[in-house]
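Hi R.,

Here's the chain you asked about this morning:
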Amino acid sequence: MSISYQTGRRALWLFGAIGIVATLALLMGLAHPVAASRGRWGIRLVSSNLEVAHGSSDLTRGLNCWTMSVPGSFGGINLDSASGWWPNHQNGIMSIGAGPGATILTLDSYFVPLAPIATGSLLIAMVFKWRFPKRTQPGLCKICGYDLSGLRTGAPCPECGR
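And the predicted structure, written out as tokens:
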């Protein structure tokens, strides 16, 4: 299967953009964890993972955990990724109270490691950059693209000097 030049250049930009966004998210999560929640759903960038959480009760952001509340009480659950390289799922169960009137809270977290996404996307972009280099047209400077028509052969480019 042959990939056209135009498709290769588009793939270069796509994978490059994905790699840059994943790298920025990775650095942001390492420098300053960020979290947001709405109702029973929450999302946070922490360490080198993107975590998507769903609780049986409304979630709020705790210091380093998801906090869930029931009338008259609250509790927090912190789940960590089982792998730094593969997406994975963790769940936690917490009981508030004892006996038949106890409230059971559950939390499901899905972890997506950002390092492999950033690394893989940037490596694929580099392969496309190598395989589909930028084309230059005859009569244009190979560095800056300035039109060299009217200049003697071998004369330096008046725009960039090369």
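The two ends are 38 Å apart (CA to CA).

Let me know if you need anything else.
M.
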